[in-house]
Amino acid sequence: MTVKKAVVAGAGIGGLVTAIGLRRAGVDVTVFERRTEPGRLLTGGGFMLWHNAFLALRRLELDEQVGAVSSEIFFHEFGSDQGRMLARWEIAPESHRIRAPAVALRRSDLNALLLEEAGDSVVMGTRCTGFEQDPEGVTVLLDDGSAERADVLIGADGMRSVVREALRHGHDLPPRYAGYTAWQAIAPLADETAVPGGTFFNLWGRNGLRFLYCRLNENEVYWDAITADRTSTAFDMLRKNKRAVMSGAYAAWPDPVPRIIEATPDEAILPVDIADRPPGRELAWGHGRVVLVGDAAHPMTLNLSQGAGQAIEDGVALSGQLVRESDVGAAIAGYEAVRRRRVDAMVRNAYRIGTLGKWRGDAACWARDLVMRACFGTLAKRGTYRVMMDFTP
Ligand SMILES: Cc1cc2nc3c(=O)[nH]c(=O)nc-3n(C[C@H](O)[C@H](O)[C@H](O)COP(=O)(O)OP(=O)(O)OC[C@H]3O[C@@H](n4cnc5c(N)ncnc54)[C@H](O)[C@@H]3O)c2cc1C
């Protein structure tokens, strides 16, 4: 191992997992996070982690801790906006076969756990602004005017990564807007008869609307309302009154959808425009002593619930390569070689699924329901598991 000192830009999931992997191997790591205090990181809604994310967390012996703050998923149920079940995946046998669960959890719980594990390596309130590298090392530039020298810089600074921008010398294409917005929230809803635990519900409707929800614990339900562009433009103008507009859009949807929205405080609803980067146009994830992980490298749409899972896999794979290889360049090349094909497939599949969700008309959505009923329980499940479990960190 030649890496003695590493700098990570960004204390999101990808950055923290990479930092933890390196620290465990004795590397001196500093993580710079632009946000000012840990509390400000601990926002955001719920989250799903599939089996592969759990297997990756197990490499760092974090799986049991994450499991302890999670709720296991036993079924993934697809339905229509008219209350018809389209498919139901039994997850428990897969968890048994793979020996790792699929779970739902609060994003803030995962962040808190990883932050604690990363310990005093995290410096809050410091933004990376760029870097300069030479054959001996990399100098990371910080917004307070200071700089930090390291053997490697890991850009884990998310979708609009500054490290990525500097790697591309300012000539990067912007992320691709997928044509829909996800309105995510956690609702205080204790009624287990309305939303039973253990099932992830995935409802597809007309007019480019979808609604996903899942019980997080006995008191809370997390949800994402996904609205295709025309509707979200109307919503955007009314962001101050999000719950009322959501209630209107989903009023005719089957119970418990209107009830979940009604139970949610307006300020808990957080809209995010969904974007990715198409793999075909991608350049390398690293150059010299600088490398990207997670959304900085390969943002994907939320349709496979895999963005964070892939950031975790990246962190485990990259820290492993940096520890094993005697040359930083070879480690970065090795990391991309094991990760690229798998992640590209995820990005493409997630984008395709999202395109189906934008359909509006009755006839098109009726045909989509028919296809989902015919093949989502079998072919789509097999395909998803094949992509998901093709896993070599
Ligand atoms: C609505 C929605 C639902 C989702 N659901 C799921 C799901 O169920 N399962 C799943 O696996 N994934 C899901 N995802 C995807 C997942 O959220 C992301 O892929 C994941 O958060 C990426 O982690 P990251 O660490 O790469 O980036 P981020 O989480 O974006 O973290 C980047 C960090 O870097 C910091 N930062 C930014 N710039 C700088 C800088 N210049 N210097 C220092 N720090 C900086 C930021 O403050 C942030 O803390 C979802 C995404 C959305 C939008």
Give keywords:
single chain; 393 residues; alpha/beta; FAD/NAD(P)-binding domain; seven-stranded mixed β-sheet; six-stranded mixed β-sheet; 13 helices; binds flavin-adenine dinucleotide
Q: Please, could you describe this protein's structure?
A:
By secondary structure, the protein is α/β, with parallel strands linked by helices. It has a single domain (5-175, 277-389), classed as FAD/NAD(P)-binding domain (3-Layer(bba) Sandwich). The protein contains 13 helices and 19 strands. The strands form four sheets. The protein has a seven-stranded mixed β-sheet. Strands 8-2-1-12-19-18 form a six-stranded mixed β-sheet. Strands 3-7-4 form a three-stranded antiparallel β-sheet. Helix 3 (51-59) runs parallel beside helix 11 (307-324) and helix 11 (307-324) runs antiparallel to helix 12 (328-357). The chain is globular and about 60 Å long. The site of flavin-adenine dinucleotide (FAD) has 35 residues, from helix 1, strand 2, strand 3, strand 13 and helix 11.
